[in-house]
Amino acid sequence: MATAVDAAQVTYEAPDLDVMEKFLTAFGMTKVDGSDENVLYMRGTGTQHHIHVTRKAPRQRFIGASIEVAAREDLDELAALPGSSRVREALEPGGGWEVVMHTPDGIEIKAIWGREKFEPLRDREPFAFNNIRDKNRVSSFVRQSVAPCTIARLGHFVLHVSDHDETMAWLNDRFNFLPSDYFLPPGEEGPIVGTFVRLDLGEQLVDHHFMLVLQSDWVGVHHAAYEVTDLDAVMSSHDFLLQEGYTPDVGVGRHLLGSQVFDYWKDPFGFRIEHYTDGDVVDASHRPGRFNGTASDTTQWGNRPPLEFFQ
């Protein structure tokens, strides 16, 4: 199977790219050269050439996600599987090579390799935090204005699927994913209706989750999540987006599974998008747990999602 190493991008369609660009800029992304009247490419401060793509179309729609793999040989292996495209030159800015696949529900999953990397954009250093025991910030002061935060990278995305087990089997045939936690129906011991998956990079630390696959009565994306510098970036950006007239979805709060401090918004076309910081990291030795609470139980503190959040 292919070795996935990063979440590269999510791709959407929408009728007005100017409206999307205005929101994503306020959210903390930067427009990339190669964008035009037909497609919008946005990047973060990290090395990925772009992390959010919107193609112009009459109606809004989620297309899929792109996953960076470790080597060209990974693309050859994926191309040999049923339903995959051949290995082909990528047409998006940054170049490289790609294999296009579709999940059993038709969601596009694109494996990429060799795309040009950007030099990281300058960002402030995270503020050190003085807890009750450890005073890490001495004669140094927090000064954070209300302003857009800077998005570092795409951390994870959540897919709603019609058949959880079939989709997980499809993914596990192709990529080196490991389960981090399982979702069970509230108050029940089975069946598994959702799986948080992470990358398998051996002893290297990775995020608790790279993707959540969730059984649902509809197919598409629940949200895409972007990592920011620290808690002050989450909170100051929250105030800035309110100031700009955008309406929050759920947040700020702290997740249970993954522990991230989160803040959910809806973009102008109804797609949920998340700022997060302070997430759990694990290596390949982590063993998955089982969660059978409600959507509200997924939040430890803060603004809790409604019961229908994952429906």
UniProtKB/TrEMBL annotation:
Which Pfam family would be a valid example here?
A: Glyoxalase
Q: Which PROSITE patterns match?
A: VOC
| VOC domain sequence ranges | 153-278
Mind telling me which residue stretches traverse the membrane in this protein?
none
Name under which the protein is recorded: VOC family protein
The major lineage groups are: Bacteria, Bacillati, Actinomycetota, Actinomycetes, Micrococcales
